[in-house]
Amino acid sequence: MAAYGLYTHIQSNKRRSIVLLIGLFFLVYLMTFAGALMGEALVGDASLDYLVRAAVRDLVYAFPFVTGGTVLWILIAYKFHQAMIDALTGGQEVTRQEQPRLYNLLENLCISRGITMPKLKVMEDSALNAFATGLNDKQYSITVTTGLLERLDDPEVESVLGHELTHIRNGDVRMLVIAVIIAGVVSFVAELVFRLLFQGGLRWRGRSEGGDRGKGGAGIAIIIALVLIALAWILSIVIRFALSRQREYLADAGSVELTKNPDAMITALRKIEGRGELEGATSAVMEMCVDNPREGFADLFATHPPIEKRIEAIVKFAGGHDPGPLALPAPEDEQDTPAVEDQTEPRGPWGGSGEQPAGDKPFLPQRPPIELGGTAPGSDKPGPWGSGRSGS
Hints:
Strand order of the largest sheet: 1-2-4-3
Number of helices: 12
Number of domains: 1
Distance between the termini: 94 Å
Strand content: under 5%
Order of helices and strands: HHEHEEEHHHHHHHHH
Radius of gyration: 33 Å
Structural class: mainly alpha
C-alpha cells in the first residue's frame, strides 16, 4: 500500500489535532485548578473539603480569563511560530536564483504530485538535518542545513525533501506544531508556579479562621496541587513523544514512493546518522527534524526511531541496499585541501582568453600586435594598406 498521502493516516492526524487542542484546554484548566488550590492553602489553614470548594469557585471565576489567554496563545503561535523558529535556527528563505539546485529538486517533486510548493529555507549549520514547519498551505516551509547540502548528492537531498513533503502532506507537521504549543503553554505555567512557590518562599500561614473552614487540610491540599501540576506537565510531554515514532516510518516510505529510489533514502539516513545535532536548537525544533540524536534514558523518550530500524524497514518493504555506517571526511580536512590554481588568463576580444589553459588548443594563433599599414614581424613586405614605416 502506498504510504504517501495515506488517507487513513491523514484523517487520523486531523482527529488527533482536534483532540490535542481540546486536551490543551483541559490541561490548562487542570493547572489553573491546581494553582487555585495551592493559593487557598497558602492563604490559611482549613479543611481539605473547604479548600477544594474554594479552588473550584476560583476556577469558575478565572474561567473566561484562562480561556481567553489560551486562545490568545494559540493565535500567537499560529501567526508567529515560524518567525520564532527562524529566530532560533537562523533559517533564511531562498529563491531559485540563490539555490537553483535545491529549488529545482523541490519544485520537481511538487510538480510530480500536484503539491503546493512550500517555502524553501536554508540555515547556516554544519549539521546534517532538515525539518518542515507550518499549519497551512500558506505557512508550510522546509528548512535544510548548509551541511546537508554540502555532504549529500542530488538523489539523497531529493529523498530528504520527499521525507519532509510527506510530513506536510500527511498532516504530521500541523499536529506536531499543535503538540509543541500544548507542551509550551503547560511547561510555562508549571515553571511559573514552581518558581513562585520555591524561589518566593513557601509562606503558609498555618492558621484557621474558624467557622466552616475547619483546619488541617492545607498541607494535603498543597501536595495535591503539586501532584496535579506535575501530572499535567508529564502528560504534555507524553503527548509530544507519542506522536513521533510511527510518523517517521511513514515519511521514509513516502519519500521512497515519491523518488522511486530506496538506495538514496538509505544512504541519506546513513550520512545524517549521528551528525544531525543543531546547536542552540530547542528540543521542540529537534523533534521536527529528519533525525533527532537527542535521546532520553533507555531510549524511552526518544522522539525518533533509531536509524538502524528505519533502514531495516526500507530494506524490508521497499528493497534497496544498506551500505552500513558511513564515514564522512571532517569539514576541516576539506577546508585544508589546497585550491587548484586557475590557469585561465583574462578573456580576449573574441570571448576566449589571451592565453589558453594548458592542454587546450588556442582559438587563434598568438601574434604580437602590429600597426595598420605596417608589416608583420620578420617581414620586409608592406602590409595590405601600404607601408606603415614613418619617413619612408
